[in-house]
Amino acid sequence: MQLLLCTAVLFSIFLLVTRYNRRNRLSLPPGPLGLPLIGNLLDMTKSQQWRGISEWREKYGDIVYLRVFGKSFVYLRNAEVATDLLHSRGSIYSDRPHLTMAGEMCGMKNLVPLTRYGPRFRQERKLMSSVLSNSAVGVWKPAIMKENAILLRSMLETPADYSLHIRRMAGSLALSAMYGYQAQGGDDPYVKGAEEFMRVSSDTMTRGWLVDFIPLLKHIPMTTWRTVSAHVRAQVEAWVDRPNTMFKNLPNTTEKVSSFCGQLLLDENGRLANLDAEESVKWMALSIYGGMSQTYYTVATISQMILAMVHHPDVVKKAHTELDEVVGQHRLPTFDDQNRLPYIDCILRETLRWGTPVPLSPPHVLMEQDEYLGYTLPEGSYVIPRAIMHDTRVFSDPQKFYPERFEEVVDPELGKLRDPLNYVFGFGRRRCPGVHFAMQSIWYTIATFLTCFDISPIVGEDNVPALPALEFEDGVFRHPKPFRFRLSPRGPLAEDLIHKSSSLL
């Protein structure tokens, strides 16, 4: 075992020296000076890594180069650069890294975010697009309206439990869309399973395990990664197969047949017909439902929206005015109202931009050496866009929550650069396939929430509003830390609307 360890270390040193010498011959982008062997490992801080990366721009510019154990990392801090490389040159910037920890050791290589670019990737995208396109996801609008009715009633009754209510809504909606299953409360085992899956899979994919940089280390026993991966691998089969088995045992309801799995696996009579695709579909469903349900977009975005509204009563007032003019106070908004509620759309886009629910998106891997702006970008580089939506050349005063910025008339090219939908759901061929579903559900939640409630800060004993701190949890997903606020229905008509909508369930 000692001989194996020494051989692995020596071989790794050889690779690092070879790559370091090659690096000196290339016109690489600037970046912080690393240390021998480990490179810039110490610069890749675990806690809110995106903040440290954002600070490099002043010193190094829009393209920053780092290396860790011989692997190249290229960080993009400019919206135009990210668009040029990840959108326009997507044919060579759409691969994913081979993650020894998550893919091999934990047994999650079939997850959609880890699929390498090639035939399998294209087949997955074709299947997902057939069910998750902008026109196709309309089939789930009734489910979105139903889950939001439950959310409104729960928020009216116990607003202090806002995070639990949003999580339940997002989890139930994801289960309904993927499998046609109605969650049984906040402690539903499938909702809890999705939360556990997202927590564990995110950790194994993003922590930066040493074995991901030096794969030979996977053979060394009694290491942290061996212990953790063995525990995770034992649970993966249950995470994948349990919801799939549940789906097959459900009665053939309209919800089941119209679900993601139903449309891809069942025939017109509700019988399991596409057996060849079942293995692929159950992994796709887990990937999408895990992301939808707990940590990805909905929970973080809605929580960020509420926090922003507490700080900006002027935005709440303007939204109320628009909703009253278009919708009135005797009904809830519908999807038919969407085009007539432009300010609600501005609030949604500004929340995505300001809050940036996923500041550390998965890296794209460059499939061949590329030249850009006089720099050489090495083959195999991890190309990672960071803080694009806080680019001061595109968004003035980016730390300010200002929905009106999306009402401004700008040049069409600048308008494309300013649209957060080009960034927050991923880039190019790796864009999240559930973007249309997420946008519909989040828009409807914001519209109905602001129709029914007034959001304001808690007033202290000195009669002074106590604004909650703008603080966020550490990690891949930017959840606000728990905060207090005052939530009150907009008069008796709003209460009647909430009770009426929930009574129809």
Q: Strand pairing plus helix content: what structural class?
A: alpha+beta
Q: Report strand order across the widest sheet.
A: 1-2-6-3
As an assembly, this protein is single chain
CATH superfamily: Cytochrome P450
The outline comes out as globular
Low-confidence blocks of residues: 21-25
Gyration radius, rounded? 24 Å
SSE string, helices as H and strands as E: HHHEEHHHHHHHHHHHHHHEEEEHHEEEEH
User: What is the helical fraction, as a range of percent?
Assistant: 40-55%
Number of strands: 10
Major sheet details: 4 strands, mixed
CATH top level label: Mainly Alpha
Whole-Å distance between the termini?
63 Å
Which labels suit this protein?
505 residues; alpha+beta
Mind explaining what this structure looks like?
The protein has a single domain (92-358, 391-503), classed as Cytochrome p450 (Orthogonal Bundle), CATH 1.10.630. It has a four-stranded mixed beta sheet. α7 (141-157) runs antiparallel to α8 (162-179), α8 (162-179) crosses α9 and α8 (162-179) packs antiparallel against α15 (298-311). With 505 residues, the chain is an alpha+beta fold. It has 20 helices and ten strands. Mean pLDDT is 86; it is low at 21-25.
